[in-house]
Design brief:
Distance between the termini: 58 Å
Largest sheet: 7 strands, parallel
Structural class: alpha/beta
Number of strands: 26
Helix content: 10-25%
Shape: globular
Radius of gyration: 22 Å
Oligomer: single chain
Length: 366
C-alpha cells in the first residue's frame, strides 16, 4: 500500500465510539430526510431541530398520541421536533449524543494508519482490506469497486476523514472474519455520496449531506448533522447500538449521563400521569423529582430498556426542584436564566464545561 502506516505493537487499542441515544436511530438528521421511490428503512428515524416538514416522500401518519409517526417505508417509528412531548426532549438529547459521538471519533489520537490507500494513492481505497484500528485521512477517500473490513466480532474501526467519502456505482463494502457493521465508525467532515446500487457497512457520522443514490444500501446508521439525508429507492438497515450505560447506584452519574439535568433517587412519588416514580417504574430507581408546576415527562410506552433514567424539564429546575444547582450553573452561563424552553436550557448546559457541571450537580444532590 502506498499510504503511510504507523501501526506498532505499542499502539493503544481503540474502543467503540459511544453513540448513546443516537444509537437508537437508523437515520438521524438535524436538517431533514427526503426520499423518492420505494425506499426501505429498518429502524427509527428522527429529525431535530427541523420539524416534520423536513421529512418528505414518506407519507407520514401521525400516531394518536402525536409523539411519533409511521410510514409504509419505515419499519420503525418516525420522530420530529414538533411532535408532542416527550419527543422534542428525546430528540434534543439524541442529537447532542450524535454530535458528541462525532467529536469523540474525530479527536481520537494516535492513528494506526495515516493516508492509507492502494497503489494509486490520494485517498483511493478501492480493493483494500482494512484491519481493525484508527485510520486518518487529510483528504477525501473513495472506492470504485470494493472495500473489505477484516476482523473479529469485537474489533473496532474508526475512520477519520477530513473531506468527503465517495462510493462508486455498484461498489460494495464486505465484512470478513466476523467483523460487524456496528463497530465500524466513519467520521466524515464533508459529505458522503453512495453511488447507484452501491452498498456500505457501518455507522456514518457525517457533518453534512449523506446522499443515497438509486438502489444504494447501508447496514449501519446514517447520522447527519448540518446536512440532509437524501434517499432514492434506498435500503437502510439499522446496525448501530445505543450503549447508554447508567450506574444504578450512583444518582449523580445518572444525572450526568442524562445531559446534566437533576436526577435523584426514586421515592415512589406519583406523577400527574399516574406513573409511579420509583424502582418499580424505573429499573435503576433513578428518577426526576418534579415541581408542582410540571407533570411527569416519563412515558413507559416510549421507554427504551437501556435508558434507566428520565429527565426533569427546564421548568422543573427553574421552579426550585434544585435551586442550588440551577444557581450554580447560572454562574457559568447566564443564558440559563433567560431560557424558557427545554431546548434552550439544554443548549445553555451544553456550553458549560464538564467539571463545572459536575461540581454544580454534586452540590445539588447534597
Amino acid at each position: 500500500m502506498s499510504g503511510v502506516e504507523k501501526k506498532s505493537s505499542s499502539s493503544p487499542s481503540h474502543g467503540a465510539v459511544e453513540l448513546l441515544t443516537a444509537g437508537n436511530f437508523a437515520i438521524l438528521s438535524k436538517a431533514g430526510v427526503t426520499t423518492t421511490g420505494a425506499t426501505s428503512v429498518t429502524g427509527d428515524m428522527g429529525t431535530s431541530p427541523i420539524d416534520a416538514t423536513g421529512m418528505t416522500g414518506f407519507d407520514l401518519n401521525a400516531d394518536s398520541t402525536n409523539t411519533f409517526s409511521t410510514s409504509a417505508l419505515v419499519a420503525g417509528n418516525v420522530y420530529a421536533a414538533d411532535y408532542a412531548p416527550p419527543t422534542p426532549g428525546m430528540l434534543t438529547i439524541a442529537v447532542r449524543d450524535m454530535e458528541a459521538a462525532y467529536v469523540d471519533a474525530s479527536t481520537r489520537p494516535y492513528p494506526d494508519y495515516v493516508e492509507y490507500s492502494n497503489t494509486l494513492g490520494n485517498g483511493n481505497i478501492d480493493g483494500v482490506t482494512l484491519e481493525p484500528g484508527l485510520y486518518k485521512w487529510g483528504t477525501s477517500i473513495g472506492f470504485a469497486n470494493s472495500l473489505t473490513f477484516n476482523g473479529s466480532p469485537t474489533d473496532v474501526w474508526i475512520l477519520q476523514i477530513a473531506e468527503d467519502v465517495n462510493v462508486g456505482s455498484g461498489a460494495s463494502v464486505s465484512l470478513s472474519g466476523g467483523a460487524q457493521a456496528k463497530n465500524i465508525f466513519w467520521q466524515v467532515a464533508g459529505q458522503t455520496i453512495l453511488g447507484t446500487s452501491s452498498h456500505v457497512e457501518g455507522v456514518f457520522l457525517c457533518m453534512t449531506l449523506i446522499a443515497f443514490k438509486t438502489g444504494s444500501s447501508m447496514n449501519g446508521a446514517a447520522l447527519s448533522q448540518n446536512g440532509a439525508v437524501t434517499l432514492d429507492t434506498a435500503t437502510i438497515t439499522k446496525e448501530s447500538v445505543s450503549d447508554e450505560n447508567v450506574n444504578t447506584t450512583d444518582n449523580w452519574q445518572c444525572s450526568m449521563q442524562n445531559n446534566f439535568f437533576a436526577a435523584i433517587a426514586g421515592t415512589g412519588t406519583v406523577c400527574n400521569s399516574n406513573v409511579n416514580i420509583g424502582v418499580a417504574a424505573v429499573p435503576s430507581g433513578c428518577g426526576c423529582q418534579l415541581s408542582d408546576a410540571a407533570p411527569c415527562t416519563y412515558n413507559p410506552d416510549l421507554k427504551d430498556s437501556e435508558v434507566s433514567c428520565f429527565l426533569c424539564t427546564s421548568t422543573d429546575l427553574a421552579n426550585g426542584v434544585c435551586p442550588g444547582c440551577n444557581s450554580c450553573l447560572s454562574v457559568h452561563n447566564n443564558c440559563i436564566d433567560e431560557a424558557t424552553t427545554e431546548e434552550q436550557y439544554s443548549f445553555c448546559l451544553s456550553q458549560i464545561g464538564d467539571e463545572d457541571r459536575a461540581n454544580c450537580h454534586d452540590m445539588c444532590l447534597k
